[in-house]
Automatic annotation (TrEMBL):
Keyword Ribosomal protein assigned: no
Domain MHYT: 11-205
Substrates-to-products reaction catalysed: 3',3'-c-di-GMP + H2O = 5'-phosphoguanylyl(3'->5')guanosine + H(+)
Species of origin: Salinisphaera hydrothermalis (strain C41B8)
Pfam families for the chain: EAL (PF00563), GGDEF (PF00990), MHYT (PF03707)
Transmembrane segments: 15-34, 46-73, 79-99, 111-133, 145-168, 180-199, 219-242
Listed EC numbers: 3.1.4.52
Domain EAL: 437-692
Cofactor names: Mg(2+)
Domain GGDEF, chain residue ranges per copy: 298-428
Keyword Transmembrane helix: yes
Protein name as it appears in the record: cyclic-guanylate-specific phosphodiesterase
Length: 716
């Protein structure tokens, strides 16, 4: 009976599948667009909404239209233009609402339900308006149950689509595409489900016939519409993909910019070579630690470290070896302290360790000891590398970052000047020493620019006939307030402050000019010995510097003799040998000073290209009948040196008895207060002229040691 009242409906399976495919594509586009809208900047979001609404609406609409075209009825069918267009508009409006909702950062229940209801209304209206566009008579009869069901499907589908779009947004990029495809299939089925349940609600009375017979063949129309919608949807997806790519590129750019910023920030707080904290970061960390300790009423310790022997290592083995040593030391320190302690490089070979909790004296000692051991071990490939460590404790030794660092620095300096390779805690008396040194450094800087640095000369005599054999140039500093300052006080200071290069240039210039002046006034200047600082001996520039001074004053190299100390020659053996060989080629003799004060001195003697050996005055001091073994030592040194073809000079001869011994033991030359102290150049002039020791009673001059009887040694 039913069959007789209504037309039999069937569907073209190909078009049904096509409609579902378009629905799925539209679903995918919807999810993709939601992401775009959300990701886009605010001012571009509305463009995505507008373009997306047209695309999405057209997709949904074409799905419906293709679905309707899939319907096979035994009558000719055509569609009225305006209702069809209206149905398209409704689809676009529903899509716009959906996308607008998707812009929200979160979807609360209220807007979700309201949005879903509006979307469902849009889709349902689109569908039924589309049905209304069919130009048939009498009208379609709807089954209310199916209509309700179709509305329910539209509602559930819209709610699910909106919910899905939000759910997918928070997910990671992994498997996002697959998940989106699954969601799109689900949405496509929901859109198609709404349509086909809506179609199921429609019954066409048996008397139904077309209002017009004019119209386009519907299969072609379906193909055209589906192609257009596929093209539109694909174009939108492509645009979305391009936009996403652009966004990814931008994001990558932003990320690399952030990384560069991070690196910049890191490098502004870290030392490039060792990657340790720099002064700036250390300052911040100390201030932070001070605040923390003040709150808790606790304390903490700060260690200032300066490497011993680093400058020599750097000079002898080169900067690269120096850098490697610094890196090894930095790593060794890292392994010694706790992770939450801070190690900073203050520049050069100076470091600071800020401990977070070390406070008790025993713990401080233990850590200082561990640091010393670690640094010595790290310096295994660089013999002689150790550290001088000073420590200061908050709050006792300083209450600001600056005060603490200064206190620890002073303690370090104390350790350095009292033996090195050791540690010491800050004491108030250290402040004076540091202040003095700081002051003195500045004064020395000024003195180097003026005439305040002068050279004194101490004569040397031949033991064979008492004639003047030469003189040792000994530097003096005439300080306006402090008076005459001896080199023991300011040479180590100049070595530490880096002023030694300039100081030695001044001394060499002084000596060379003096020799030239003596000669110019008709005097025969003896060979003058010039001391070379320990810090400079291995400097490859040194021979050139000496040559420049000789050239400037027109002096031949034989007029000079250079003195190096034994400890220096042993430390940087290869480099020292290189420098000495260059001096030998230039025609300048070299003397090894303070001989006997080093450790393995004898074994090295053979290798050094030197011409003279100066026995340290500590050996000469004890010469006498009370200590016969001392004479035996000096005797073997003299024999050894002579076997090596070296001249021997006895330093520090103060008494007649010592004089007697040095002559007896076979020393070639002698020098000491018995003959004369170091005297200014004008006083030394009196000795020039070839006279022998004692002939003019030189030791009666105020420069000679007091109470020293004037007596010529018994030569020969
Ligand atoms: N007790 C005693 N001392 C005597 C006697 N005869 C000489 N002296 C002192 O012993 C030092 C000898 O110089 P040195 O061993 O090279 O030791 C020198 C040398 O290492 C360094 N020095 C001095 N002048 C220069 C210089 O121009 N350049 C460099 N690099 N170092 C210098 O300073 C050190 C000390 O120099 P000075 O104070 O001038 O002290 C000089 C000299 O005045 C003596 O009979 N008894």
């Amino acid at each position: 009976m039913h069959a007789a009242r209504f037309l039999t409906q069937s569907y073209q399976p190909g078009l049904v599948l096509l409609s579902i495919a378009v629905a799925i594509l539209a679903g995918y586009a919807a999810l993709d667009l939601v992401n775009r809208v959300h990701a886009a900047q605010r001012r571009y979001a509305w463009i995505w909404i507008a373009a997306g609404a047209v695309t999405l609406g057209s997709g949904i609409w074409s799905m419906h239209f293709i679905g309707m075209l899939a319907l096979i009825l035994p009558i000719h069918m055509s569609y009225a233009v305006w209702p069809t267009a209206l149905s398209w508009l409704m689809a676009v409006a529903a899509s716009a609402v959906a996308l607008r909702l998707a812009c929200r950062t979160q979807l609360d229940r209220g807007p979700w339900f309201a949005g879903s209801a509006f979307m469902a209304l849009g889709i349902v209206s689109m569908h039924y308006t589309g049905m209304y566009a069919m130009e048939i008579t009498p009208g379609i009869v709807y089954d209310p149950v199916w209509v309700a069901l179709s509305v329910l499907v539209a509602l559930v589908g819209s709610a699910a689509a909106l919910g899905l779009s939000f759910a997918l947004r928070g997910l990671s990029r992994r498997f996002l595409r697959v998940r989106k495809c699954i969601a799109a299939v689900f949405m496509g089925i929901a859109i198609a489900g709404m349509h086909y349940s809506g179609m199921a609600a429609a019954e066409f009375p048996a008397a139904t016939h077309a209002l017009t017979t004019v119209g386009v063949e519907k299969s072609w129309l379906a193909l055209l519409i589906s192609s257009l919608s596929v093209v539109l949807l694909s174009a939108t997806l492509l645009a979305a993909a391009l936009d996403r790519r652009l966004e990814t590129q931008t994001a990558e750019l932003v990320a690399s910019l952030q990384e560069a910023n991070e690196q910049l920030r890191h490098s502004s707080y870290h030392d490039a070579l060792t990657n340790l904290a720099n002064r700036k970061l250390l300052g911040e960390r100390i201030s932070h630690e001070i605040q923390r300790a003040s709150r808790r009423g606790s304390g903490f310790a700060l260690f200032y470290l300066d490497l011993d022997g680093f400058k020599q290592l750097n000079d002898h083995l080169g900067h690269q070896a120096g850098d490697e040593a610094l890196e090894r030391v930095a790593n060794a320190m890292r392994e010694t302290v706790r992770d939450n302690d801070t190690i900073a490089r203050m520049g050069g070979d100076e470091f600071v360790v800020l401990t977070a909790e070390v406070e008790a004296a025993a713990d401080i000692d233990m850590l200082a000891n561990r640091l010393l051991t670690a640094i010595r071990e790290a310096g295994e490939t660089a013999p002689g590398l150790s550290a001088s460590i000073g420590w200061a404790r908050f709050p006792d030794h300083g209450q600001t970052a600056q005060a603490l660092v200064t206190a620890a620095d002073r303690a370090m300096y104390w350790a350095k000047t009292h033996g090195k390779n050791s540690y010491v805690g800050y004491r108030a008396e250290m402040a004076c020493q540091a202040r003095d040194e700081f002051h003195l450094r500045r004064e020395l800087g000024k003195a180097l620019e003026t005439e305040a640095i002068t050279v004194y000369y101490q004569p040397k005599y031949r033991t064979s006939d008492g004639t003047l054999s030469g003189a040792e140039a000994l530097v003096r500093w005439h300080h306006p307030q402090l008076g005459l300052i001896t080199p023991d006080r300011f040479i180590p200071l100049a070595e530490r402050s880096g002023q030694i290069d300039q100081l030695e240039r001044v001394i060499l210039d002084n000596v060379c000019r003096q020799i030239r002046d003596w000669r110019a006034s008709g005097l025969t200047a003896p060979r003058i010995s010039v001391n070379l600082s320990a810090a400079r001996v291995s400097d490859p520039q040194l021979p050139d510097m000496v040559q420049r001074h000789l050239d400037r004053h027109g002096i031949e190299p034989q007029a000079l003799l250079l003195e190096i100390t034994e400890s220096v020659s042993i430390k940087g053996m290869q480099e020292t040998i290189g420098t000495l060989e260059r001096f030998a080629r230039m025609g300048i003799d070299v003397a090894l000073d303070d001989f006997g004060t080093g450790h393995s001195s004898l074994s090295y003697l053979e290798q050094l290209p030197i011409q003279q050996l100066k026995i340290d005055r500590s050996f000469i001091r004890d010469l006498g009948p009370a200590m016969p073994q001392q004479a035996a030592i000096v005797s073997s040194i003299v024999t050894l040196a002579h076997n090596l073809g070296l001249d021997v000079v006895a330093e520090g001869v103060e008494t007649e008895e010592q004089l007697h011994y040095v002559v007896e033991l076979g020393c070639d030359e002698m020098q000491g207060y018995l003959f004369s102290r170091a005297v200014p150049a004008d006083r030394f002039e009196r000795l020039l002229g070839g006279m022998r020791y004692g002939e003019r009673g030189l030791n009666r001059s105020p420069d000679a040691a007091p109470a020293m009887p004037a007596r010529a040694p018994e030569f020969g």
